[in-house]
Write the structure tokens for this entry.
Amino acid sequence: MLRFLTAGESHGRTLVVILEGLPAGLSIDVDAINRDLRRRQGGYGRGRRMAIESDRADIMSGVRAGETLGGPVAMLIENRDWPNWQYTMRSTAGQDATGEDALGGARRAPVTCPRPGHADLAGGAKYERDDLRDILERASARETAARVAAGALARQLLAHAGLQLTSHVFTLGSITLPNRDRVDFARASALPDDGPLRCVDPALEQQMIAEIDRAREAGDTLGGAFEIIATGVPVGLGSYVQWDRKLDGRLAQALMSIPAIKAVGIGLGPDVASRPGSRVHDEIVVGNASRATGLARPTNNAGGLEGGVTNGEDLRLSAYMKPISTLMKPLRSVDLATMTGAPAAIERSDVCAVPAAAVVGEAMVALVLADALLERFGGDSIPALERAMSSADATMRARFSRR
């Protein structure tokens, strides 16, 4: 129902994203898109690239007079560092019309020493490229800026339908927030956009900052974990009928597709493996008049999903990020040009990007939820979607009314 494609290289001229499937008549807030792009660039531990770029999305098609038309929405995000990379990232073979001497930027040598943990070696082998820059430019997390732009449109659709998303960081390096399940949507959403690490505990956040500083001094990097919370999620998104329609699987794949994410949890996540069923499954009780079902859950260990279908509780997803692969004190590698031992390549990078990854996570969850929303309720226009949701809500209220 809703799909998107991105294009572009980390140091290329621009990033491109095309999002198809938004209903016609959705009011678009461009400032909200750019606000999410700024959030992705923030967070303590980011590198010099963030001081160069100031990401803004330019809508090229699919929107007229502030409203979607029903066709694909195309957006461009300019890479402001492009003038310094014109020669290295030129698209023409040999001399172009103006001559290579007219192209700006340094004449950078080929990258031949793959970084452990990055796509350099595997990608170079797969695509038969000698210069690993051909791999790292596309495999770079810079591509996620385009995802955030697409996700910002998806979350505007979700907001129109009453769904909201937020995130918070609960682990960074060796420091973990205890009882993260007690962090509700209101507490997480109250965190400021420009907070250093978006951790709800200020004292722990300062410890995390100190740990980042130590890693920077050591030429090392740090990973961590974040949680995404969605509230206002209607009952019945997703399906248990086929494996590829289960919403938990679709959400997990979307989060795992973010560079450096190595594990995903839903609700209690891995903790369910060490608890008895009596401390995992959420009891069902009567007593929530605001819900269409009139039912409530004293706990939300399932994270809002049962059998691949949303149950009306807040959706809670956690994602675990490994340390970034570029180390200022590089690990051992092999120079593929000579097949001799050599230090891994160094690319401009971050010490820690967990808060930024959380913003990307919000975008990916928004895209999957928007797709599931349209799948369940349909509608080529916003009025049609509104009618379908209203009818479904009335039907469910009647179905679960006390007899």
